[in-house]
Design goal:
- The chain is an alpha/beta fold.
- It has two domains: 244 residues, QueA-like, CATH 3.40.1780.10; 78 residues, Beta Barrel (Thrombin, subunit H), CATH 2.40.10.
- 21% of the residues lie in helices and 27% in strands.
- The longest helix is centred in the C-terminal third of the chain and has 14 residues.
- It is globular and about 60 Å long.
- The chain starts with 26 loop residues before the first strand and ends in a 5-residue tail after the last strand.
Amino acid sequence: MKTDDFDFFLPAELIAQFPLPHRTDSRLLYVDNDPSDLCDATFKDLPGYLKHGDVIVLNNTRVVKARLSGHKATGGKIEVMIERILDMHQARAFIRASHAPATGSTLLLEDEITVQVSAREQDIYTLHFMHPLPLAELLEQYGHTPLPPYIERAATIADENRYQTVFARESGAVAAPTAGLHFDEAMLKTLQARGITIAWITLHVGAGTFQPVRTENIEQHVMHTEQYYIPAETVDIIQTCKAHGGNVLAVGTTSLRALEASALTGSGMPVAGSGETNLFITPGFQFHVVDRLLTNFHLPRSTLLMLVSAFAGMETIRHVYQHAIEHRYRFFSYGDAMLIEGKRQT
């Protein structure tokens, strides 16, 4: 299967550069198993698509201020994007510079923080922050909200709130689980009042989620690794739901990836505890846990587009994206959402 199979033309004006005034203002495209029968709705209609006994799984990761600007000792400007915090003073990071910094060299970030480049593996650097404050505190004090590269503006104070879900709790992500951005507290209460159970997982989204697929053959692509945690309570909730004929709705590809990766380590059901996954979900993947997926519209040629194509079917997603473009849906992180019924297994 070729990366070109997942390409499409997206008009630039459909890439959402700002969030809408209210989280639930976004549109919702309902995608049933019949791709010719799409329903244009709003996110506020979501409860009507669910029933008593269903489960919604949300990712409670919290985005850290992972973007830092600075310069090399030679004076060249750089931008550092933290990919993962390793400990109190070390992190893995991407560095954007006119010339790659050498291993052993030092950087000055935000005019305050001296950093040594300890190692490099392909595009990812290991950085040692030579500062008495723990790295998490440094990022909170000096870092900037890590808006995705397709948002062509500087982050504002408003982004510190809007590029964060209302249920963000566990710090560690460097990109938001964007399907969760549509929920507000009122929506969560409405769902619970209708007998829909909310369950939690944590998957710390890495900057690798934005890395393009550079191979012609998708099977040759190496997926980035992300950390996740699934509580025992969430496993119990899902098992009870399945036993009573309910549906499990994963909010976002991150929730789906954590659940399905964990299920592969057990007997087809998630296993409580922590783990790491580089699971690359492509068409042909057998889903064990997730029945429905709530997600935003994704980049052409991206691993996330491949994931939703696996979940709904490639021809269905091609039709859905054509419909979304023709009907002027807003794309990517601050864009609209779609609710997808899982492809029926034959």
